[in-house]
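Hello Y.,

Per our agreement to keep a running log of every chain we model this quarter, I'm adding this entry. I've kept the format consistent with earlier entries: sequence first, then predicted structure.
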Amino acid sequence: MFAKDFCVKQNRKRKVTGELPGGEQCKVSRAQTTPLRCVTARGIPHTIRPPVTRRLQRKIFLDGKIVEANERMLEQFVPGVMTAKGVFETMRVYDGKIFLLDKHINRLQRGLKALEIVNNYTKKEIRHSVTETLRVNRLRNARMRLMVWQKHHQFHVAVIARPYKAPAFSQYSKGYKVLIYSRKMTKPRVSCDVKAIDYRFFQKAHEEAARQGYDEAVVLNRNDEIVEGARTNIFLCKQGVLYAPALRSGGLNGITRQVVLKLAKEAGIKIRLKILGVEDFYQADEAFLTNSLLEVIPASQMNREKIGNGCAGPVTEKIMKRYRQNVKAVIC
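Predicted structure for the entry above:
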């Protein structure tokens, strides 16, 4: 066998000056790597050219116009990171079509009213800002975030579109593992329609679950009632009856939650909206989680305890199937 080839890599760095929207100057350090000059064990010179790395740029809608934004700028527009008084909506795009856009805008407007924020945009203008952001980014399957907030008495709107790939089929088969978050939700929502940008509590809940190897966190209020998941709404099934936490426990009236309740009613499934506790989770035959991006996904494990048979049960499977049929019917 020949001795291993060896390569001498020559790097040199240079400073690149860029300009963010609004005239802010920033300097980015970028390594420029020259081709690798190699000599094989047989003494044959060989050149390996490194791949070209490009900085990601996205076009976002910000305060009335489309602007270029890099990752550093996008990180500022994350609920839980941004500290402001306002609301946001997350929407899913299927084959270039935004699912239930009007329902999201209607809830956003109700949320602004609950927070007493004067909305400077009409529903038509908000709708155009979302559809235009999707168009200029040329995305077919995406996740979109619409944010409206007030800071220092100034009104702001941002729309961000990013590629989205749903979890693998195997993830829906085995389900999500959920964890009871160690902290209680002590600050109630102003309204079940307020999906606030001040999302730090839920962000921390999700981070704690991820650190411990779980997919989602279950949030309880000070009375030990189930509120919702850190990023999802929660449903439990017992003896064929579908249970959802009553909104008076503090949960968000999720758009997907509303669709699921409607589909369950149409399917003849008995529905109970009531105060639920941790014991209800452990005693459930089935459980599943919902949001706009995940759609409907089984919850197979609570802390270290298996829920039901540890996979999607008959009610969950029926709701999953009907939800996907509903998506196809709406976007076609």
